[in-house]
Amino acid sequence: MELENIVANTVLLKAREGGGGKRKGRSKKWKEILRFPHISQCVELGKTIERDYASICEKQPIGRLLFRQYCEIKPNLQRCIQLLDAMEDYEVTPDEKRKSRGEQIIKTFLSKQLNIYIFVVPALTRAAHEYLSGAPFADYQNSMYFDRFLQWKMLERQPITKDTFRQYRVLGKGGFGEVCACQVRATGKMYACKKLEKKRIKKRKGESMALNEKQILEKVNSRFVVSLAYAYETKDALCLVLTIMNGGDLKFHIYNMGTPGFEKDRVQFYAAQICCGLEHLHRESIVYRDLKPENILLDDNGHIRISDLGLAIKVPDGENIRGRVGTVGYMAPEVINNEKYAMSPDWWGLGCLVYEMTAGRLPFRARKERVKREEVERRVQEEEEEYNDKFTEDAKAICRMLLTKDPKQRLGCNVDRAVGVKAHSFFKNINFKRMEAGIKHLPNFSPNPLSFSMDVLDIEQFSTVKGVNLDQTDNDFYSKFATGSVSIPWQNEMIETECFRDLNVFGPQGTRPPDLDCNQPPEPPRRSLLDRIFRSRCVETHEDQNDSFF
């Protein structure tokens, strides 16, 4: 290994470990970077922000925490929050313990006169939120906790530039530029920065594809799909700051870790997480269209996320779309035939992945087989896949149902959709509610992150793009792309890195601190040492000039 590669890996590893100090990778100036604006500077935001209970108090992580802090000082609301917490706990309780947990909730929170025999969680949860969204939410908006929420929103909307991050080694290549590791200076959080070179985008006419991927990424909030945290621009590139996945891709693990393929439990685990990711995309009416092992990435702990949404597209409500896109060997028959479809190609793709993870080869193409595209497409349309002794009966059954050539008969494509896939006996050992909540379900394999990093010198560099000039039309496109922080990932970052805990401090005995007191003027901005020395020197010079005049 070359010295350059050793140095690059060492620096990255130290950054991932938080730099070895008490600040956990944060800049020395992290508190200044995340300094709350005075509440008087949030007036305009307070007038324009959408005051929607579900958005502010349920979906946004910081909004949810602050609303709960407010409820904790009101005994009647505190009881309501405790009920909601009990409901959430009930939802992820294992089936064998659900009855006793439900009875405990009824005994603790509900009146004996109600005579409830059937425990209906959605109805109770809905009733609690309906109550909280009324007078309690109205009162909350006049509290210091809502004012603090506005301060956090102002920080969230700060301009994002390359100086927001520390840049580390190149991890790989995308279609329009390099992918490198980066770290947010204020929080120490590590990400992957996908750079899209402006001239390369223009030369390939890739503007709509790049903007489509960005807009789809910011819509999806799923632990099973790579998240977009920031979008910004530099002089030469558009940058997507994404979840960093250090464990390599599924293709590497299928073919480079001993005998090709996985044991049943591992296939089941990955397939379940992919199924959850597809369900979350489909909920947003997004069809992925490029499911293959290279696009499934592992994190440090062995959990997976779907990545590279360049071919994903939003399907208009009540309509189907047409598009012959994807990767040979993974494209569904209806895609090959250029027929209209909705979400069906993704369930075909899941069938291909379950087959490949089990058999160590594609269903319609042998490993390293040299065969023309047309022949692979013929097999997909006309032949039936074959199963060896690696397949259990459940694995065979789910593959056959997912690889049904008629999309109308395919598992996942009827009214039950993802629910029907998750209910298949192949997943009988998976508790999907606990998996989606991030509880339990630890994979039986955890990768060594550095084992899957390519040598810096092995990553081929992009050539310089010549003969392309950027103009005002391009700037209009860049302004649509470089929109800064994405709300939910940014708020999660503040919470996960404990910046929220460290900064979300109020006055003694629940009083307003100075930055939330409209009667106290804002503190003047702090000046750097160099600035203070310069200003002091200017004052001395001015006084000397006055003395000489007299």
Automatic annotation (TrEMBL):
It catalyses: [G-protein-coupled receptor] + ATP = [G-protein-coupled receptor]-phosphate + ADP + H(+). Residues 59-113 form the RGS domain. Residues 165-427 form the Protein kinase domain. SMART domains: RGS, S_TKc. PROSITE patterns: PROTEIN_KINASE_ATP, PROTEIN_KINASE_DOM, PROTEIN_KINASE_ST, RGS. InterPro entries: GPCR_kinase, Kinase-like_dom_sf, Prot_kinase_dom, Protein_kinase_ATP_BS, RGS, RGS_sf, RGS_subdomain_2, Ser/Thr_kinase_AS. Pfam families: Pkinase, RGS. GO terms for biological process: regulation of signal transduction; signal transduction. Keywords: ATP-binding, Coiled coil, Kinase, Nucleotide-binding, Phosphoprotein, Serine/threonine-protein kinase, Transferase. The active site is at D290 (proton acceptor). ATP binds at K203. Residues 366-393 form a coiled coil. One of its GO terms (cellular component) is cytoplasm. GO terms for molecular function: ATP binding; rhodopsin kinase activity. Its EC number is 2.7.11.-. Belongs to the protein kinase superfamily. AGC Ser/Thr protein kinase family. GPRK subfamily. This is G protein-coupled receptor kinase. It comes from Nothobranchius furzeri (Turquoise killifish). The gene is grk5l.
